[in-house]
Amino acid sequence: MAAATTTQLRAEAEGRELVAPCQLNVRWLGASPELADPKCQPAQLYGSLEELVPWYRRLPGRRLVVLGPAGSGKSSLATLLALGLLDDAALNDPLPLVLPLGAWNPRVDLRTWMTQRLRDDYPALRNIELYGSYAADLLIEQRRVLPILDAFDEVPANLRISALQGIDRAMPPATPVVLTSRRRAYTSTVAKTGPLRNAHVVELEPVGEETLAEVLRGSSSRFGASRWEPLLMQLRHDPNGPLAAALGSPLMVWLTRTKYADVATNPTELLDPNRFPDRATIEEFLLDELVPTLFPAEDNEYLPLTSDHWPPEQAKVWLEFLAARMQQRELPWWELRRLVHRYWLTVLNAVSLGLLTALSVGMMVALVNKLTVLDVASWTGASAGCLVSVGTLINATSKGRNASASMRFGAARSMLVVSLVAGTAVGLVFGAMFGADPGLISGLSVAIATALRFSLGSPVELSRPPSPEATMARDRALVGLVCLVFGVGVGSAAALLFGAGRTGMVWLGFSSGALLGFVLAVMSRNWWWFTVARAWLALRGRVPYRLLEFLEDAHKLGVLRQVGARYQFRHARIQDHLAKDSAHKT
Question: Model-level pTM?
């Protein structure tokens, strides 16, 4: 897990230009004494970003709160702190994980939520044969994870008191923890509950003039670096002006570098007092220009290579829709269905699965009746399809559960019981129709196919970095695997019953088994729900059909960031700005 997390964090830090040569070396200093536990304030509490990791290692208790205004670099600091701790980790050091608090409901115990995040982001932990039934739970309970809780301010305001109290309960005073927050949100909460126990508190400073000059000049070739000089002169001349206030934020520095990366652009337009009379106007302009800059009408050599050239107008519409509809500041691909009205999603799913069930059952009835009673096959298939449709509707209207929830029954026993039940059921049906021998053959085939599905269905690698693409590929592969094993099982039974020379019957058996396996598999896999929701949203122009490719390209370009197997907007201000534009259009 440490290797996988390190790989992902390093790729994220490099993609977001958080490391040299583009790194902004933001400084930090001790916050107001009333925000910290009085016994935890050391005499010296200031330094640079480069000094944070060694300083944190020396910190008694390793409990830290990092404060700063919007866009000050708190999430970037969380990423770099986790990466720095991993790069220099001792054998028994806990695994630092960045966890976005905006996705946490404080009504749920923090440790329970952290455990579920581990299961979702590291599916191999659900491999009970290799890691046991409670691998993720034990990692949390035995303090093998160092939680870096990012963005306390994204917890709803009416739940922040409960949230801070919940963190204190879940993380006793001797347990290492890191918390980041906007200053105002943390200050108002601490005034009512008291500070996080035994935690030191630091605050990020605005970007300094020298650091800003170094980064802006370094963002261009030596032929284009001179473009920044009028801007830098204005900053020196008026260090308290609107431009200096705007560019004191690392987020705005990145937006400025992105907007004026092309040497043909002219950053001195920001000096026009008529267009940009105050800080808010400058920031709104830079936010407005982000998507048109990163998704240009023509190829731009200054941008990272992407999988496709996305239409700029459509890209903006898609991002605005996602920004407005995303829940809890992140978009796990397996929750895309939440963006579709429940009624339409349920109907689409029920109709499609009902039709597939009707086809597969009808084919199987035709198979066992040797194609002599097609009317019976048709009626039986239609009835089965209707039953599945009704069952799907009932299931969708009840409270669902996470399909990836960990099983508590031993893997070997689960495989044995399910295989025996499935094999016995099929064997009894075929035995009643064709006699004891065909029933035994059919039952064994299905039992073996089911056991094979269990044995091959669990991931084993914890060293692979978590990503949306990897988790979806695994989910999709499991559906294909179930289709294959059921197809082979029923096809083999058909070959044994009717003879291998009856290729038509064998192929009919394989096809009907594969279809039935598909229906059974997708009922419990998130990939199917994602596929249905994506198709519906794409038909309505809300998202592209190749949604994951688009999200990965937006991630490469810097609009999104990746946290575990989920995508988030790079910053809450970017998401809020796009969501506001979407609301205005609506």
Answer: 0.79
